[in-house]
Amino acid sequence: MAVGVFDSGLGGLTVLGAVARRLPDVPFVYYGDNAHAPYGVRDAEDIFRLTCAGVERLWAEGCDLVILACNTASAAALKRMQETWVPKDKRVLGVFVPLIEALTERNWGDNSPPRQVETRNVALFATPATVASRAFQRELAFRAIGVDVEAQPCGGLVDAIEHGDMILAEVLVRGHVEALKRRMPAPQAAILGCTHYPLMEETFANALGPDVKVFSQASLVAESLADYLARHPEMRGPGLRSVNLTTGDPQAVSDKAMQFLRRPMPFEAA
């Protein structure tokens, strides 16, 4: 029954909360690689190695299906994992898919030629590694034409959120929005391309202005996962327990998670 949720730190808890609410009968195993966070400043080889190690740990918990609730891992490692590493009886899915489905208003399985879409100017806020990968732009180009994506690497933002320094996080968000708008003064839509960023969604929205539609990931991923499991019920793994695992200090991570989510979230050592 169990499904795995992987993240480099605490950001994936926003996705975990949404999928657990949407699928209350499914046990979820969360793996946070807090000892090596953040991933956004690491190179692609390092991200691949760490992500594979985390996914293997989730497989050991009986999770045949793992969601990479980490945009950096999805951007830098997922394609290589799927093509060269994931066995046929397992699945590893990323978090870009639901965003692109929502932005282009088409299903991921729709393999018709790319077409014009209503939204033409898109702001992408993400970690430096996600921006450098250009994975979002590459996947978007398969499904839409004529969309201008301006990407802003949001250095420092994940660290500020993970440390609970929301004052610094707000300052950083406003600065990153200002920097992007100097290059794209009138975006129609904004993608919050990191699972930490939903905690700052209101700040992003206020800085961007009322005419910009903000796409956040948690609820989109939850609906996408529900649809996937309805179509592929065999991918519910044999695991039965819900548990939160961390490569960091369990007590310290539990304390941070409670500050992060404003509710108790106990972790065990991975």
Description of the structure:
This protein is α/β, with parallel strands linked by helices. It has two domains: 3-94 and 218-269, Rossmann fold (3-Layer(aba) Sandwich), CATH 3.40.50.1860; 97-215, Rossmann fold (3-Layer(aba) Sandwich). The chain is 44% helix and 17% strand. It has helices at residues 13-22, 44-60, 71-76, 78-84, 96-104, 128-133, 135-141, 157-162, 166-183, 201-208, 218-231, 250-261, and strands spanning 3-7, 28-32, 65-68, 91-93, 115-116, 121-126, 144-145, 148-153, 189-192, 213-215, 243-246, 268-269. The strands form three sheets. It has a six-stranded parallel β-sheet with strand order 4-3-1-2-11-12, sandwiched between helices. Strands 8-6-9-10 form a four-stranded parallel β-sheet, sandwiched between helices. It has a two-stranded parallel ribbon with strand order 5-7. The chain starts with a strand and ends with a strand.
